[in-house]
Amino acid sequence: MSESLEICLTDYECKDKSVIIEWIAEFYGFHASMIHGMKDSGDEDYKEAEKTLRTWLVPGHELYIIRNGKKQVGFLHLGYRGSCVAWIEDIFIDKRFRGKGIAVTAIRMAEELIKLNQQYIAVCMDVVPRNEAALKLYHKLGYDSISIVTVRKEFYENKRDRVEKILGLDFKI
pTM for this structure? Predict the structure, then answer.
């Protein structure tokens, strides 16, 4: 029997700080591991996560705790970068709660929050190309337009071992 979901987004509060810092460190550690391999989070990672949290708490940003019932299961960070497009900057579901449809529900809820202000005509997300699971999820939810492509030049060893074509050009991902 599958667990019933009671997903809601609640505004970040100071009492959520320790779990959010832990999750931010894990979130960025996951992205780093896509190229450098897994490592445990250390003091520096938590200090960086705390700095990141402070940048998410300024005007133009909204930070939500994703809850299933009363249980904290993740976070969602919205950013308003311009006058008509909002961004789902970051979404994270604790690994113990993944694969249950929580991210799908949270993204849909975020879209509804954004649409409450009719000046916003679109919502965007950044995603690293190696995160195929995220790309597939976002595409399934209707994120099928490419708006901005970030290109990157490595100054030192390039550990990106996959090549994908975009407009006939080879890019390492």
Answer: 0.86
